[in-house]
Design a protein that fits this description.
Length: about 200
């Protein structure tokens, strides 16, 4: 069991539980690589990571940015075969750059979703490990700015927790918010390795 500076027991906290949210859906299969190579090319100056090589519609032009940014922050592009289907552009970029079809795996943004060129394949858990701290839950601001950390009123302590393979696990309770964030970082490295999205807590911790 991992031990951390400033950790206190929280015996009355609920035990680790399975996440009750819905199952993450499998990624949509991509069109054939030959078709993608005919339609697009990878571009470092395109915010979507793609530009049109041979546009499929009259209002599009060669070398134009391919795709539209949606409210999730991702870019997606429509491709018409028997009917028009929409795909997130970073999965197409990954296949065009590497020649490897991601198939049912996630494609993870190493530097966050605003960079569609620095990509790697990941499991669902690994992709979640690299996700950013949410600023609010159900419209309410989070009690801590650090990922995996929240304030527990009944214990008057900062609680560190981590979710791995849909299971939420309790790390510990701490008087100091930074100690809780440090504990989360250590646990994240243990569970997610290179995919861990760590809290930025300064050079003294």
């Amino acid at each position: 069991m991992l031990k951390f500076l400033g950790q206190r027991s929280c015996n009355s906290l609920p035990p680790a539980t399975k996440h009750s949210g819905h199952m993450a859906s499998l990624p949509k299969p991509l069109p054939p690589l030959e078709l993608l190579q005919e339609l697009f090319y990878v571009s470092e100056t395109s915010p979507s990571g793609l530009r049109w090589k041979n546009p499929i519609a009259y209002h599009l032009k060669s070398n134009q940015v391919a795709g539209t940014k949606v409210n999730t922050g991702y870019w997606r592009v429509g491709i018409k075969t028997d009917k028009t289907r929409y795909y997130v552009t970073h999965r197409i970029v990954f296949w065009l750059k590497t020649g490897v079809n991601p198939e049912e795996k996630q494609v993870d943004h190493v530097l966050g979703k605003h960079n569609n060129l620095n990509l790697r394949v990941a499991t669902i858990s690994e992709n979640q490990g690299n996700s950013k701290k949410r600023q609010s839950i159900k419209g309410k601001p989070c009690s801590s700015k650090y990922k995996g950390v929240s304030w527990n009123n009944s214990h008057n302590r900062w609680v560190a927790q981590i979710q791995f393979k849909k299971k939420k696990m309790h790390i510990g309770c701490f008087k100091n918010e930074i100690d809780a964030a440090t504990a989360y970082n250590k646990a994240a490295i243990a569970y997610f390795g290179e995919f861990a999205k760590l809290n930025e807590i300064g050079l003294d911790k």
